[in-house]
Amino acid sequence: MATEDQIAEALEVQQRSGGRIGEILVHSGVISEQALLAVLSEHFDVQHVDLTGFQADPAIAERIPEPLARTLGIVPVAATDGVLFVAVAERLDPVTRDQLRADTGSELRELLATRSSIDELLQRIYGERYVRDARLGLVERNPQDSAHEVLSGGQKFAFGALLVLILVALVLAPLATLIALTGACSVFYLAVSLYRFRLAYLALGHKLEIEVTDEELAALDEHDLPVYTLLLPLYHEANIVDRLTAGIDALDYPRTKLDVKLLCEADDTETIEAIRALALPPHYQLLVVPDAEPKTKPKACNYGLLHARGDYVVIYDGEDRPDPDQLKKAVVAFAKSGDDVTCIQAKLNFFNRDQNLLTRWFAIEYAMHFDLVLPGLDTDGVPIPLGGTSNHFVTARLRELGAWDPFNVTEDADLGVRLHKAGFATSVMDSTTLEEANSEIGNWIRQRSRWCKGYFQTWLVHMRHPFRLLGQLGLKSFLSFNLVVGGAFVFLLNPIFWALTTVFVVTQASQIQALFPGFVFYAAASMLFVGNFTFLYMNLAGALQRGYFDLAKYALLSPVYWGLMSWAAWKGAIQLVTKPFYWEKTVHGLDRRDGD
Amino acid sequence: MPMRVCAARRLEGLAVFTVFTLLFGALGYWVVCVLHVVPFEALDRLTRATMVWHNDPPKLAAIGFAFPPLITVVLLPFVLVGSMGSSLVALPVCSAIFGGITMVALHRVLARAEVGPARFLLLLLIAANPLIAFAAATGGGDIVGIALITVAMGALVAWYATVDTRYLVSGGLAFAMACVASYHFIGWLLLGAGVVGVTLMRHRADEGEIEGSLVMFLTPGVFVLALWALFNAIVIGDPLSWLTDSATTTVNAASSSAISTDVAGVAEQTFRLVLAGAPIALVVLPALVACAVLQRNELAAWLALFGAFAVVTPAVLALTRDDVSQIALREALPILVVALVGIAWLHQSLPGARTLVAALAGIGLLVSIPITWNALDTYRYQSMEQAFHRAISTGEDQEGTRSRGGLEVGVLSERAMAEFLKTDGRRTLADNAQTFGVIALTGDPRQFLDRADAGDDRWRAAAARPPADVRYFLFAKNAPSDELRRLYPQAARGNDPRFLTVFDTPRYRLVAVPAGLGRTSRIAAVRAGETSARPTTRSPEGP
């Protein structure tokens, strides 16, 4: 039982944040859910039940519609003549009770059960339906925005026709065709470089992101804080579960208002067992996603979103270490933002950036992307391809939008574009989540190939109807989308141009020279010198903007890093054809010092 | 910063740019296109830029490898349409735009230094400075470097005041570009790095921050210079020849022997330079030193050092090259820039005396105008400043006159030859390094087989044995370094009976290439030319 000190502490929490004393004691791990249940059962003189392993009759369960049951945290478990036995996590209020009685045509008999056991029972009953919704929700609602098919019929025709046209042109006028292709690629590359430089310069030295001051945080009344859902997709990550929960516990947010969803795939028994072994308090909920293709993070997140109770929802990866005050900052940031702001992206960087050269490059790239490019996009009011984690959403709007596309392997970037298309805004806030940087090249290539593949997917999805997209986004956002998301294609071009340059320098081959007549040569030369310098300098600027001065010199070696990017881009491009929905899983926990 | 303030600031900057660009552009059009005061180095750059687009094949290498490349590169957009170059309009347009950029940069410097509306008056006085007006109006390359170094100095001062990374970026980029607009500015880049490093050290920044900031600041400069050295190494086999071979402007040296190149003589000439071109620096630089000492104002000390560097650079060059003409009037421009930035910093650093500083600056700039105006006419080492002075004073066409020291003014010879060639349309072999004026004014370098087309070796081979489509040789009669003239000296003089003079002007001779030239060896051909008896000129003399 709780000691006097524990009760005093719980009372203090209650005074500060609200909530029921029993819940506070359970959420802080002082007493178990079962113990509280027993007390409540005695207090209300209501029978309590243990639903562990209980197999409900679906016909009975469905007497209360699933969405309502999920929202209220109830589930019908038995029925006799005229009486429906309903497991409830807390007593129903009279209005709800009367409504349910009218809807079901039965008298209700409440049986107290723990919230987690009710949720688990609902999953056992409706798991297949949930996973179907998670998989096909967007496809059914808005198929043209889903990557369930790589190319639409129109795109197949258009790309096919273009390919034929190029082949015919190559036969009829090979040199002119190659020159035209080279010229087009050079101009595109240069445009991407200059646009990114513009974005970076726009953000450099400014605080374009939403800033939340300490005073604003201190002025928050915790009683008014909304329930916040945290989605944490995990796959084969049993080794980091305890670190993950420690990180969540470190968040400065009332635990009774946290709704943490630990999302595991059904075949990942190791992680599931590791979570169960921790006997986590009830604000943690283990959601086991039934086995179904595609086995992707967005599908798991959609599954989690179905169960989300929070007004806001955020995604974190298993190894993430968000700033402790990030949730509160997000609440303030939403309050300070315009009504259309539906997503607030926190900045990302790495806690192990000093581990090796690869992690340093990765950290520099992230600093450039999250501290310069994204705030630049935000200021410009153009679509922001979201980062993989730490994006905070208004839950209702996210649902309205169809949530994440489970067939897109960069569902985050895709969602950013869909938000913009729907007229919602995304902002960036001045709070950082530290992740683990990939420290092994193979692992990094896998992760990056997925990102590149996802960017290609996203570009293809939204460019199915270019003119419609232009109408939806407007010219500025349309161009930005093509230069930022479509900009991933430059990594495919890099090795081609590097190879041509190298071969020409070594052999002075006239055939290569012939590919670059006059104007094409000028564009290509600008691309080579201005483009490469721009990327290098932006990396440098990103490092300084973030205050990573010690990494500046490593930014000078960025061209080697781009070589790796191109490798990954080609791998992603090939996989887009061979295994479009395959999720290249990143192995976490490679940070040796952290492991030590 | 509130968006409204940003927008207002941008609008103000745009207004300053528009007004001064139009003013410089109008003045430039009048002086260059109507009164024909055309600096020859500007004409040379114009030709090179024209060749980059309009040569056959288009040739990036036409930019050249000795002169700072940026001063040609910036002309490229303006000669995309060939007639912009051949009409010379590209020159004043380009320099006026950089003049406008200089004024915007100075406006920002003054605004950051909290100079109130008086800054607009100061800007007018700066623009009225005859040396700045000459540089911004006549298409010379100096204004490109001046614009960039002004932006760079403004960014450096802003960085010092705010330690904002953005200024480190813009400063680093501007210094880098200034380095390839005038190699003198490499020293400025290093001094700038000194400002960054020492300032951070004085602020007890950690080693990482100092290192990172210096990397940020120096990377663009190192990149462009390394790239330039690489191009030089690849194309002409010497990565650093540009450091020793360069000279950006034609300066008369006719009377340089009158001044001794010993230290005393050079010092005297340097003093004359400052007095003539940037007299206000004689007040501002000591004031900066005083401010540095009395206020322990570090940036004032650095600015004084920049000023000293700007003053000393031409003097050192004069001594090392044993050539006093290095202390040319245009060398006063960087000194003037430091003085103007110094005025702004003094204004910012002396809150109790801002009105006084602004008033003194106004008076100083006003007084400078007649002094420098007079210097344009009288200063010994200059380009076309005297012709500019005369053109403005009299409003008369300067075609055919001479500027101080004997430089010929005008492009009548070039224009006449260009018109003839344009009408004739036949392919002509020429040394573009000496006949650039003609090439530029035709607006069509494709008509010429020149050294930029396929390199010197192939050009020499073609000169020895011209291809069938080459019908003319074009000689620069008064240029001993004309390669074609060296190969066919008698023909250049009109003394080779094999070469019929087709058209002739005071500076150029166009001759018809005899059929079968080059069937004998080049040496034999030359000898044949050397031994020919009398000139045979069938065509009328040119104007």
TrEMBL record, chain B:
Q: Which domain of life is it from?
A: Bacteria
Q: Where in the cell is it found?
A: Cell membrane
Indicate whether Transferase appears among the record's keywords.
yes
Keyword Transmembrane among UniProt keywords: yes
Stated membrane topology is: Multi-pass membrane protein
Keywords associated with the record: Cell membrane, Glycosyltransferase, Membrane, Transferase, Transmembrane, Transmembrane helix
- List membrane-spanning regions: 12-40, 60-81, 88-106, 118-136, 143-161, 173-201, 213-235, 273-295, 301-320, 332-350, 356-376
Record-given protein name: Glycosyltransferase RgtA/B/C/D-like domain-containing protein
